[in-house]
Amino acid sequence: MRERTIASHFARAVLGGAQRRGYDYSGLLQQLGISPELLDEPRARIPPEQFTRLIQGLWLALDDEYLGFGQGVSKPGSFAMMCHAVIHCRNLDKALHRGLMFYSLFPDAPRLTLAREDEMIRLSLDDSHLWDPEHFLTESLLVIWHRFASWLIGQRIRLEHATFSYPRPEHGAEYELLFSCPLEFSAQQSSLLFHSRYLDMPLLQDERTLKQFLERSPADLLSRPDDGHSLSSQLRRLLSRDRSPWPDLEAVAAHLHISPQTLRRHLREENTSFQELKDQLRRDIAIYHLGRNDLPLQQIAEQLGFSEPSAFHRAFKKWTGLTPGAYRARDL
């Protein structure tokens, strides 16, 4: 179970555009099982499929794939039409240029450009004219274009650097998960930097795979985990596979053929720790099962390595600000 849960911040942020448009989203939240209590708790998380449905519901309600954050609207289906326009391109270079050209046909669309910098390519976004106080559209466009490009060539494009035209936001820790690369805030522009070798790679997708891809995209691109190259991402994949019982730091270090001290140091350099990664994964697994109501609380506690349900209860409230029972209640 490697799906990462989504911080409640992103649900609050995505509702900002709807609020600006005067749309009453209370019925949609009730339909999706998202309570005001959950939205008001900064530590709370929501399952990725629930977040996907929230975005899809707002697209339909607002008739806008920019969700109220752009200068103008982007009619639902615009992203799909762009995908159809690029799917038969020879390589990623042609596909990206054609995709950006497609959106340049709309005067109010956010401006995205590609520029070569020696052996690197910079994808830049002009976010200066967006109504985007929480930076949700900026984050979304950069993430979607990166993950869409990766999907086209069938491998993750390694990001070398990401810059943002605004100061580090309060939810800045989430950027480590969104972009998995060195970050720079208060920069001249918002952009992603990657090696130019990817541009020559052929597209591995076709009309058949595109049909499946579009069923949940681009919302699914925002909610699915990004299989980054960082040590944190590697450890999450390792812990997801082998947790019976949960391995300790020494066992993981031995598996990676490094010393425990080296493992701790590398994780510190990524601004995290073994315990934090383990707790994040346990939190996400707990939310997964609580949302499905498929296991009793005691069994979830045991699966996560807690000897007593009360210890799980305390840990979960510390992680999310809410009790396991509150997450499980269907009126949430």
From TrEMBL:
InterPro entries recorded:
AraC-type_N, Homeodomain-like_sf, HTH_AraC, Tscrpt_reg_AraC-type_HTH
Sorted alphabetically, which keywords does the UniProt record give?
A: DNA-binding, Transcription, Transcription regulation
Top-level taxon? Bacteria
Name of the protein this chain belongs to: AraC family transcriptional regulator
The record, for Pfam families, names: Arabinose_bd, HTH_18
Stretches assigned to the HTH araC/xylS-type domain: 233-330
Q: Lineage from the top down?
A: Bacteria, Pseudomonadati, Pseudomonadota, Gammaproteobacteria, Pseudomonadales
